[in-house]
Design brief:
Keywords: Membrane, Transmembrane, Transmembrane helix. This protein is mainly α and 88 residues long. Helix content is 61%, strand content 0%.
């Protein structure tokens, strides 16, 4: 039995950090960065799935979709003070 290749996890971690930094780019560069991350992420995901199995690959796919579509570091999502909603 072969040892898992930890280098694939390193590439996934680097991809994850770069994807989290997309919201900090200028608005005009975000779509290009998004599609670049998709094009780079597909082979990385395939390599990870090849070495670690379909369970880890599917979990990473879900995590990657969440990061790309709803970035946790998005500055516009941060709450600034008390914002009241409703009929006040």
């Amino acid at each position: 039995m072969t040892q898992p290749h930890y280098i694939s996890l390193l590439f996934v971690a680097i991809w994850l950090v770069m994807a989290c930094l997309i919201p900090f780019l200028r608005a005009q560069h975000r779509p290009a960065a998004f599609w670049a991350m998709v094009l780079v992420g597909v082979p990385v995901l395939g390599w990870l799935t090849l070495h670690w199995g379909p369970g880890i690959g599917f979990g990473t796919l879900v995590l990657a979709l969440w990061v790309l579509l709803r970035s946790p570091l998005d500055p516009s999502r941060r709450r600034r003070g008390n914002i009241h909603s409703g009929l006040h």
